[in-house]
Amino acid sequence: MYVNRVASLTLPTSYQNQLKNIQKSPKFQQRQPVSFPGYTVLTPPYQDDTTNESFYEQLNLIQQQLIEKIAPNLLIPLPPESFHLTLADLIWEDNYLNGIKSEQNFDEKLEKAITESFETYQKIDLEKGESQWQILGLLVFPRALVVGLVPCNELSYDKIYQLRRTIYQNKQLIGLGIQQQYLLTAHVTLGYFDEIPDNLDRSSLESVILSFNDQWIEKEPQILKVAQGELRKFENMTEFLSDQTNPKVMI
């Protein structure tokens, strides 16, 4: 079901519909990140991930090639060191700012609840083996261009599914206003859209995207090994803060 849903997003008809509706991202102004605070559970970003160096090097190359081929300044590229896979969106911007105003020690309570979710996950009787995800193709989101990922096998998907379930069913997190807002569409964001030109050649952009997807079909699969999840606070979409006390979970 997951693979079929994500694969449908790489069909030419889907791209045509998606490209009609792209918008400038409010997370950037004058191509610089704006304040957008919150928390997320993610894999270690590229700068902290020694397991997936070749995978992220490939994404870095793809990002550079895309920028060369699409309309100038259409995409605001993310710094490659921030590349990551989001495992579970938690809370951000106004919801987070309202949370810290209305709930004393909000951050500490959130961290404690996530730690409990991670401990619950570790007790689930899952098969041994790595969670591995491979590149399917480029996906067009309303405000971003991303690389979509699909699981290499059922276990790979089940591990992430079970982790998300322990997070979103945590009553302490629900009490803090945290709930599942999106279905899982595993991806790594390459960049966010800037101003959309009135004369944007969407057909040309679609052709560029399809040409990248054709390359992946012909190449050896690019695999992301999902070995660890971490709770991280972010100040904007390029900075995911880390310290030794961040709750972590082996996947």
Structural features, described:
It is a single chain. 39% of the residues lie in helices and 25% in strands. By secondary structure, the protein is an alpha+beta fold. The strands form 3 sheets. Strands 3, 5, 10, 11 and 12 form a 5-stranded antiparallel β-sheet that branches. A 5-stranded antiparallel β-sheet has the order 4-8-7-6-9, sandwiched between helices. It has a two-stranded antiparallel ribbon with strand order 1-2. The two termini are 22 Å apart.
Q: Quick one: how many beta strands? A: 12
Helix/strand order, N-terminal first:
HHEEEHEEHHEEHHEHEEEE
Sheet-strand content, in percent, reads: 25-35%
Poorly predicted ranges (pLDDT <50, ≥5 residues)?
A: none
Per CATH, the architecture is: Alpha-Beta Complex
Number of helices: 8
Shape: globular
What is the C-alpha radius of gyration, as a whole number of Å?
18 Å
Outline:
Residues 28-95 form the DUF1868 domain. The chain has 251 residues and is an alpha+beta fold. It contains eight helices and twelve strands.
Itemize the secondary structure elements and their pairings.
Elements (H helix, E strand, L loop, with lengths): L1 H7 L3 H9 L7 E2 L2 E2 L4 E5 L10 H17 L5 E3 L8 E7 H10 L3 H17 L8 E11 L2 E8 L2 H15 L2 H5 L11 E7 L8 H17 L4 E4 L1 E9 L2 E3 L6 E3 L1
Helix pairs in contact: 2-8, 5-6
Notable characteristics:
single chain, 251 residues, alpha+beta, Cyclic Phosphodiesterase, Chain: A, five-stranded antiparallel sheet, 12 strands, 39% helix, DUF1868 domain-containing protein
